């Protein structure tokens, strides 16, 4: 069964960092790009960036996002620095269909709360 | 950034057709996908590459994309289709972008 399993909920202070994990199973990690998408409470979906698991090359919209991968454990990570209250959201890791530019497998989501 | 605009809400009677639009500059030149999201759940891909359905998605879901508008059509709408729907586009210049989302209510 193809799935992405994400790490648990996080509560962080403003200014802190958080590192989320996403473990792929049921397929070879290096065969698909992995993206990160978030949704603030009551808001729409926001694409944040992606990583090519084959070479580890990331492409992100914000410099404070760090995306990495560990092919030995089929796990992708996203670290977000300098957290702000506006970063409170559900974060998903998402698999891209090869060549289709669409997201076919979504993780279960990780709630990140940034609050003092 | 690239903006994709959707109507905030669409209402449809059971068994009728719902059309959900997604507008963006030259959207017809880009690949469009659609996602269904029910409360508290992860989104599900229902249409990709404008018109294709992933396996397991019912035939009542169809898509089109031309000019500045992509459209998701739900034919013979069921109560279980009540959800939020998001369009998404890809282009080498914009990378990936999501629409503003549409809440579909089945009355």
Core attributes:
heterodimer; A: 116 residues; mainly beta; B: 107 residues; three-stranded antiparallel beta sheet
Description:
The complex is a heterodimer of chains A (116) and B (107). With 116 residues, chain A is mainly beta. Chain A contains no helices and 11 strands. In chain A, the strands form 2 sheets. In chain A, strands 2, 4, 5, 6, 9, 10 and 11 form a 7-stranded mixed beta sheet that branches. The N and C termini of chain A lie far apart (40 Å). Chain B has 107 residues and is mainly beta. Chain B is built from no helices and 9 strands. The interface between A and B is medium-sized, with 19 and 22 residues.
Task: Sum this structure up briefly.
The complex is a heterodimer of chains A (116) and B (107). Chain A has no helices and eleven strands.
**Overall 3D shape of chain A:** globular
CA distance, first residue to last residue of chain A = 40 Å
- As residue ranges, the low-confidence spans of chain A are none
Biggest sheet of chain A: strands, sense, closure?
A: 7 strands, mixed
How would you sum up the major sheet of chain B? 6 strands, mixed
What's the number of helices of chain B?
A: 0
């Amino acid at each position: 069964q193809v799935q992405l399993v994400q790490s648990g909920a996080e509560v962080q202070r403003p200014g802190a960092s958080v590192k989320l994990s996403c473990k792929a199973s049921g397929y070879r990690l290096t065969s698909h790009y992995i993206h990160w998408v978030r949704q603030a409470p009551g808001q729409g979906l926001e694409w944040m960036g992606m990583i090519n698991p084959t070479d580890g090359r990331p492409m992100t919209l914000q410099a404070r996002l760090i995306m990495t991968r560990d092919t030995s454990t089929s796990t992708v990570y996203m670290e977000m620095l300098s957290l702000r209250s506006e970063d409170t959201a559900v974060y998903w890791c998402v698999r891209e269909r090869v060549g289709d530019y669409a997201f076919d497998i979504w993780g279960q989501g990780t709630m990140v709360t940034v609050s003092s | 950034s690239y903006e994709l605009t959707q109507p905030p809400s669409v209402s449809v009677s059971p068994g009728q057709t719902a059309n959900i639009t997604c507008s963006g500059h030259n959207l017809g030149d880009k690949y469009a996908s659609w996602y269904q999201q029910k409360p508290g759940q992860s989104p599900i891909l229902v249409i990709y590459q404008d018109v294709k359905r992933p396996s397991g998605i019912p035939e009542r879901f169809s898509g089109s994309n031309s000019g500045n508008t992509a459209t998701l059509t739900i034919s013979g709408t069921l109560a279980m289709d009540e959800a939020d729907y998001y369009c998404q586009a890809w282009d080498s210049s914009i990378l990936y972008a999501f629409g503003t989302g549409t809440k579909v209510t089945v009355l």
